[in-house]
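tRNA-specific 2-thiouridylase MnmA
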Amino acid sequence: MRVLAAMSGGVDSAVAAARAVDAGHDVVGVHMALSKSRAEHRTGNRGCCSVEDGHDARRAADKLGIPYYVWDLSDDFEDTVVSDFLSEYSAGRTPNPCVRCNEHVKFAALLERGLAMGFDAVCTGHYADLRTVETDTGARHELHRAANHPKDQSYVLAVMGKQVLGNVLFPLGSVPTKDAVRVEAAARGLGVSLKPDSYDICFIADGDTRGFLRSKLGENPGEIVDESGNIVGSHLGAFAYTVGQRRGLGLGIPADDGQPRFVTKIEIETNRVHVGPVEALDVHRIRGGSTVWLAPDIDPTAPLRAGVQVRAHGREIPATVQVIDDQLVMDLDEPLRGLAAGQSAVVYLGTRVLGQATVEDTE
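Predicted structure tokens:
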């Protein structure tokens, strides 16, 4: 196959590309330039998409002996991921930019261009497992958790959609640990073997999400109120808060029982942030929209016992799930706390990813 290997400049994508070469594929490396100010987007191991990352990706491609190109996808990234991030926070929701990036840029934009250029598949260094099941009606592609459970990224990949699964490769899905990847990179002579992982939101390299939102959205002072509607503090912008938040509230009036309070609701219409006791965060039912169902062999409109995960490395909760009136309804066996509209909810059956939806509301 002709394979387009996405090379971020990190160790995972370099080893994934190397494994694609070993498998006999005709591999071309491509580095996606996602930031319009790339030199500013790495501080230690914060952020990504810097000029340094591009150089590291080029050196890895040279070592593997494969062609290498840089594609400027910064407009796609700005128009979809960053703009969505700002609009979602403006609406009082809590988005996951990594989910949107995987949906719109790392697969949609990259795969669309790759297929148009005659490539058969896109290869990335994500930790996830793709399996092919032969059926009477042909091959079925399934997305599963990676063997390396602590690094598993199937949660952020679930939004891809079943139509993409036949055109992607995840060579690291069977690797048991990140250390094993680093050992393999060193054995191959790849200079990124000891490069630290990047973390946090890539376009907020200093990690100050509240500061970034304020710089983009401005200040909009309002009230912080308790469960009885009493004013207990003030804020400079409701968009800077998220459901479940405890720190940084700056409340001037303590709770009657002396217990800490948490953000329980963000009311954009009145520009109010609501706070209450931790018990007020308990969620028993989740309703999700924009549902992506990856399992054509399973009817989502019939009640199904499965697991639900609502954070990238969160715990899976047993639940009964069902698509009702185009909404993915998830009734949890035990309550979750601090779940906000805009987050991604992913449904698992064992290790297999069945579907994904964006949280619209909760009970």
